[in-house]
Design brief:
single chain, alpha/beta, 7-stranded mixed sheet, 4-stranded antiparallel sheet, about 25% strand, globular
Length: about 300
Amino acid sequence: MNKSAGLWRIEVAATAESVNAFEQALDPFCEAISWFATDSEGEWRIEGFTETRPDGADLAAALSVVAREFSIAVPEVSVISVEKRDWVADNLRMFPPTDAGRFFVYGTHYDTPPPVGRVPILLNPGRAFGSGEHQTTMGCLLALSDLVGMRKFKKPLDMGCGSGILSIAIAKAWRVPVRAVDIDINSIVVARQNIHRNGVPGLVRASRSNGYDSPLVRQGGPYDLIVSNILANPLCNMAKSLGSTLRNATAGGGIVILAGFLECDANRVYAAHYRQGFRLMRSYHIRGWRTLVLQRRPALGTACKISQI
């Protein structure tokens, strides 16, 4: 790396399928990384910050490895000099408290007591996905909020927990043990920090797991609530495993909350779960993103015409 002093921002565009891999490729070059969906369908943008200007050839080589793995072109990289300041504090100020039904999500920079009667969740924006402001996380929080008082849960699972925000919300709202899992070890580290910060280490157990087929997840089932805020393709691919992990209909069934996908992907996500015996309870539409709340019922066949969602 070139050791010239200053602060540099690295910008890279990625697809929904490759964003995690490109984020990991940039990790050795950056002190902090964030990523978010753009207004262009299927495009995500990764932003990293570093105090030393990275070498362009090294960056290109790291990104080329990921591009080959996904059979896509190497994305263009922008390396921009920015004014050196307390950009961590500035970043925190960009995230005001989030109101999501019964839940109130706020950061450590918020110096006012949370509103009375709300479920407070203390969470700073960071590298693990889920700080409340994104439409997918908001949809899940609203769905959970609407279920409070309507349903009782004893064995919830947060599949792809990211920052742990949804696990924390479930634990605080229902005061029950929650199993939280994610394939990314960095997310588990962040989730555990947030779990302790919110005072629920006795209720939420965060562990690394590659989907539903790990012994860790199987031993904790069957679950009566599963929340999964990931991406459309993994949700479709994991629908059968989810179906075998949720409590069956004869034992009372269960609720599934699915998010992480755009409006255009809602039908195929629903179709994959319809074939496993799930039926739509409610749908949340937030600025081009969709959250589905499904309920397990006895299977009625696999024919699927679901334009109503």
